[in-house]
Amino acid sequence: MIISAAKLIKDRDILMVGTQWPIIVSLFAKRFYCPNITICYEGGVVLQKIPDRIPLFTGDPVINSSSIMLGSCLDTLGSILHGGRADMALLSAASVDRFGNINTTCVGRYNSPAARFGGSGGACDFGSLAKRTVIILEHDKKRFPERVDFITTPGYLSGSDSRGEVGLKNHTGPYAVVTTLGIFKFDNNGEMILSQFQPGSSVDEIRDSVQWELKVAEDVRQADPATEDELRVLRDEIDPKGMYLREARLLQGIR
Amino acid sequence: MSERTKVVSMKEAIEDYVRDGDTVYMGGFIQQQPFAAAHEIIRQGIKNLTISMSAGLILADQLVGAGTVKRLITAFTWNPLPAKAHCFERALIKGTPHEIELEEYSILALALGYFAGALDLPYVATKTILGSGFDWQSSKSGVNNRLVFHRSPINGERVCLIPPMKHDVGIVQVQRSDPYGNAQSWGMEGDTKYGLQSCGKIIICAEEIVPTEIIMRDPNRTIIPGCRVAAVVEEPWGAHPAPVAGYYDIDWQYYALYERRTRSEQGFQDFLQKWVYGVKDRREYLSLLGLERINELKAERFECHPVSYGKFAQHLEVR
Known about the structure:
The structure holds 2 protein chains of 2 kinds.
Chain A: H1 2-6, E1 14-17, H2 21-32, E2 38-40, E3 45-47, E4 67-70, H3 73-82, E5 88-92, E6 95-96, E7 102-103, E8 106-109, E9 112-116, H4 123-129, E10 132-137, H5 162-166, E11 174-179, E12 182-186, E13 192-197, H6 203-207, E14 215-222, H7 228-238
Parallel strand pairs in A: 1-2, 1-5, 5-10, 10-11, 13-14
Antiparallel strand pairs in A: 2-3, 3-4, 6-7, 8-9, 11-12, 12-13
Helix pairs in contact in A: 2-7
Chain B: H1 10-17, E1 23-26, H2 35-43, E2 49-52, H3 57-65, E3 69-74, H4 86-93, E4 101-104, H5 107-119, E5 124-126, H6 136-139, E6 148-151, E7 158-162, E8 167-177, E9 183-184, H7 192-197, E10 199-209, H8 212-216, E11 222-224, E12 229-234, H9 252-261, H10 265-277, H11 282-289, H12 291-297
């Protein structure tokens, strides 16, 4: 999942990077594929080098001594993202729907929720304003409803030109969803379409893992398996303590 | 003219400047959050506050759980592990300890709102939010915030208008301030500068109080001039468990412990009793935390190269 997502980034891209998976994806991309990308976080951070320890979230203080600029939200979310200069935004998600809308707010109705998540953070801004948004999450059928309960981050809303109709800028919107099972792109109607399946998965398994009738690209193929070099860099250099790879950052053992 | 020192204790600062029903901006964004001040607010039993912080994280969670909050204005309230903010969820689902009003935005929308509030602009127009659940006009999601949706008089496009967000009180943890409130902060700025500048009464909590001369040697670092500040509190480690650039790390273990302990209401009450009510100030809190942990969290020094602002004493010679 991490490697597949990293491969979507182009060198010299200016990235807005959200918390969780995008952090490790963008650092891996910088180290392995695209050394000249610019990594920006919501709080005004423009990262310059791979930090000495992997940031556990976008406010990790290790960032303070790894950055070329420490500005404010108005510098990154404002000038770079709202200013139309973010080539790609990378986001995690609690759930994603058929048209790439993301929910990180609630299960059920907003005013009488069955469960509450954290909310948007900068995610709504990322999805509204970036030229391309890449959504990264572990695959679980529960996380792929046909329509999310709440649109925290706009994807293609209800398809076709719904984005334009509500006033969102042209040439913005989701580009891909990358999961542990597959890589999905979006068709001209803004609907998610399966583009590649991860080694060990299959088109049938993935069809069964979303809550709507999934479109499958005619040229759907298996994603390239991770190479030994890619895995070595990821495991030994980028995340040696398994903070993301083994979710060690959750400190499961703490009582 | 001699300036009046504004240095007071945390207890005095909160007593004098935070009232029931106030709207309070908590600064620092994800980093320098004023936990010590928030704990003093809880200890003093101040109620019905509107708390505004875009990254509520666990500070907002603690204030909600302690019954301090009437309304929460936020973009993200969540434990960064990642895990739930349990008090926040309980308040919204079960209404315990009591129901709260929720006013939700994205980070950029709030940052622009603080900017508008600082300058007292009529509003700021933006192209974020549109079509999302926060766009209550198009989505009918039931969200209740102060955004207005309109057509731009310049090009007719649909825009989101953000009203000025102003606050009675602003509180933040900074690295240093002089005794008159000329406060300097460095690290990730987030929305702190304009957030603070949008406030009526500003309480600066500083790791260190330094002479004015030091502030004057690097004036680009100043985030608020003393004329805007009501009180200065010397409060080392006042942001723990949040980090302060150059001073101390985030206490990630504490966030994990908080998440585990506060899964139940009783668990949260026990936590509050231990870390807030059971200590009379931050100094006692730090004794509870222990010197060993404090030393583990202390930042290794990593200094910048000094810069010269230039000094000019001579005028032109006029012949």
